[in-house]
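User: Hi! I'm working on a homework problem where we have to compare a predicted structure to a textbook description. Could you give me the structure for the chain below?
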Amino acid sequence: MNSSQLQSLQHHNEMLAQFVIRLSKFFEGYSADIDSELLNLRGHLAGHPNFTLASVSMGKLNTLFQSDIKNVRRYNASGVALVEQSVRSLQQRYQHDANFQAQAASVLTLAGHHIGSMPSLLKVCLNGLSLVKQLPKHQPGPTDTVSTTPLSAEVTQSLQKELHQLLESYRQLQPDNPQLSELRHRLLVGLDDDDLLQACLGILRLIVKDSMGEAAMSGEVIQSLHEALGSLTQDVEKSIEQTQHTFTSRMQHDAIVKEQLHQIEDVVATDNSLEELKAQAQQCLDQMASTLAEREQREQDDKQCVMTLLSQMQGQLAALESQVQGYRKQLSQQHDAMNTDVLTGLPNRQAYNEKILTAQKQACPDKNPLCLAVLDIDHFKNVNDRFGHAAGDKILQIVAQKLQSALESNAFIARWGGEEFVLLFENTPITELQQKLEQLRTRLMDLPFTFRQERLSITASFGGAMFNTAEAPEQFFERADKKLYEAKRSGRNCVVIDEDGHL
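Assistant: Happy to help. Predicted structure tokens:
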């Protein structure tokens, strides 16, 4: 390696050390142990980097990070769902305030564009909190009484429902977490507004902690791949050096053979005696044979060395490919888990957000009409109150299975949250939507439910609309959601369609 290469390597090492120092400050405040070890790591990398000590620190940090690694993306969608549900409830409460409606719509648009990262989730949450600060002030009239309750019963119930769903997701990964068990118990008993706020803060802390764990896992994957590629690079360099050594050795042996040939020519030219000529020629030929044999042996040794290095590189490439396949499989599993509702096994709201973006690009009112429906199980709270949450969860699972089995291949269903589901029908005109939803409604009515020897009839209300290319996905959903509320106000257990398609 020449001086310019050494200088380049030294420059890259310094850049890497400075990058690691800056990157380490991202994790500050996560825990006292990690902060202490990050401080040690920055000390080893500052000035004249000591990579040996730095490697020890990185090993300790990997151990600390791995102890808390959990995937947070699957819960980001639930966090956004909680904000969206709360904002929609506030919209219903202050539906006559046009300014507040516009601000709430902007928050819903931001939530709809959520991409699953922690900063985007925090941005959605902060915008939601900012919206709460701008709640319209109610001016009490002569017969009004001033209420000290900041949120309506509908909003409180919706928040508790979404928190319960989030906690159930976390408890599957952390069944022994006492904080989660306590929060779940308090939710089942019932929370006042202050306790509800504390529960929300507790969930946010878990999300932040899991996000840090996910960042640590990403760093571990990058470091592992870096080490594998570094080892492979070393073997490649060894192979190049061995090839250069073989070439140099061959050149030297060629020079020796040429010199021996010149010696034979000199003997032939100067010797007069035939016997002396034969003896010296034989001596020169023996030297050449010895030189060629030595060269052949060395080339065999060099060839074996190169083959060994190539075999090692092949094994390293196979191991690296296997490792990459494992990471790809892990990412695929994480994506599936992130887009799947834990209770029903259906796609969740995050999966719907991805599906609607794809479907709307392919939708065309004339050639490929796209319809959407929102359904809500009627009087579901009464089921939970009378028979318990376990019975309610069982109903949701059976309803989800029934709906999914009844849908055709061009339809998509996801659990929106609580007892609400959203359905997409591709290549389906609005004239067919009413019939399809009526079939689903009657199928649900025919489900045989019996709890505590009591026959229970399950019904649902449906609201539907057809996609208009001039509207955003949030507006599309909002139109169907409004029709759902009309179905509820019309007595429930019915289908209401937005047939005119206006925004």
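For your comparison, note the following. The first helix runs from residue 3 to 24. Strands lie at 370-377, 411-417, 420-426, 449-451, 454-456, 460-466, 495-498. Good luck with the assignment!
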